[in-house]
Amino acid sequence: MTSPTPPAGLDGWLRRYVTQTTTAVGLVVGVSGGLLFFDLAKRQVHSMHEWLGMAFLAIAVLHVVRHRGSFAAMLRQPRQHVLLALTGFAMLAFVGASFTAPAGGGNPVHQLADRALDAPLVALAPVLGLGPDEAQRRLAAAGVAVDSPAQSLATLAATNHTDPRRLLGVVLGGRRD
Ligand code: HEM
Ligand code: HEM
User: Fold this and answer.
1) 134: which of 68, 117, 130, 156 fits an S-S bond (Cβ 3.0–4.6 Å)?
2) Exposure of 75 by Cβ count < 10 A (0-12 exposed, 13-18 middle, 19+ buried)?
3) Does residue 116 share a domain with residue 78?
């Protein structure tokens, strides 16, 4: 590159690295977000997308700091106000629609998971292909005391101060952590 030598200090550091890192991280987050949208390679990219997404937010803040002068000027442009208003309306339309959506909408897999967490252990175990006592045994092995097979993972999680999804993991895989 033939750009002039950046100044020393924080501004120089911002100029040398921040737009470059924003570009690199933004590319990966953008491509992985596109894959997730089309339900491709979800298992492989989901957690990477989440964490690099958080890194992207942090680096994007520095990117704005690096371009703070032109960013502030841009915020004063009337066309920026129109675009902010249009984006705000789009956001409100989606958020508003979520309030009026009929109950039971949304991802059916998430609904199934919620119902599984609320079901009594005695009903959940056969769905998971486990014998009557096996779910209870796995929970006990992980240090979760079950008073009655009528208890649900959600109730057990509340009384044991843990996450019900962790308990579902224990029951599914017999994990002890
Ligand atoms: C994948 C994401 C992004 C990429 C690849 C990217 C890339 C770039 C590049 C290459 C420049 C020109 C740098 C220069 O002239 O030295 C730039 C400028 C700028 N970017 Fe980004 N950027 C991204 C995200 C963002 C975000 C999220 C914001 C604001 C929230 C932002 C705000 C700005 C501003 C204000 C400028 C200065 C524009 C100017 O001086 O005219 N960028 N960006
Ligand atoms: C180029 C920008 C981005 C695109 C196209 C994109 C797209 C997507 C898509 C399609 C999903 C899948 C949702 C699903 O599970 O059905 C997703 C999930 C997610 N994205 Fe992004 N994303 C982008 C940027 C970001 C950023 C900057 C963050 C910041 C943290 C982020 C955080 C997340 C998280 C936490 C999830 C997981 C949500 C869940 O557990 O279901 N994404 N993204």
Assistant:
1) 130
2) exposed
3) no
